[in-house]
Amino acid sequence: MKCQLELIKKKIAAVIPAPHAEGGEAALVITTDGEKYLDRRSTGWIIKRLAQLYNTDLHAVKKNYGPLLGRKRLIPIPLGVKLVFLPLTFKTDTFPLDRKLGYISLEQIKGVRKEADGNILVLKNSLELRCFNTMSTIHLKIREGGLLQKILKSELLQGEASCYLAEKNSCLAGTICREETAPLAAAFFYCPKKPLPGRSFKT
Fold first, then answer.
1. Which of 45-49, 98-102, 117-121, 159-163 comes out lowest in average pLDDT?
2. Nearest to 148 by CA among 48, 75, 197, 201
3. What angle do CA 71, 75, 80 make, to 5 degrees?
4. Which of 40-44, 51-55, 170-174, 186-190 ranks highest by mean pLDDT?
5. Which of 19, 49, 79, 182 could form a Cys-Cys staple with 54, CB 3.0–4.6 A?
6. Which residues pair with residue 91 across a beta bridge?
7. How many CA atoms lie within 13 Å of 70's alpha carbon, on the beta-carbon side?
8. Mind giving me the DSSP string for 72-96?
9. What is the structure's pLDDT at 157?
10. What torsion do the CA atoms of 37, 43, 44, 45 make, to the nearest 10 degrees?
């Protein structure tokens, strides 16, 4: 089964590895309202496809934001200010048991609970996911995701300021142009017009 990412891309809370009924590994896509979609494709493929849908260059993300976060790999995936996916480790429940990378939306994390056999991520939709990262690593990922959100907001505000200045300068240039051409226009419209030689105008 393949989930329609185009239809649910705005409400994805998590993409984690999961076993498939036919054997092997699949991806479990969880939405903000708790719906689950088991997709035969890998978690990595799902994230790359979501990046395409949001016009996000993952190589550029690694190159531009990695140095700001002090990381060369496992960088949070920013698909939007409110859609930053944190890379965390989950158990696949396959045979043999394995641990694979999954992605959790920062905005959808309600809390973290420590247990003896792993830490529990509590989502806002009330679902609980067992994570095999240490508590300190989870909190570090959450801080990195928050920092990336602030960077994105700052870039967005700078972009809006640049657009405003460009629009303001364009309006100012238009005003100056109108002021310079106004006397010429007035002279053209109000100057008495003489008939052309050889022609007479009768009423």
1. 159-163
2. 75
3. 135
4. 51-55
5. 79
6. 99
7. 5
8. SSS--EEEETTEEEEEEEEE---SS
9. 85
10. -30
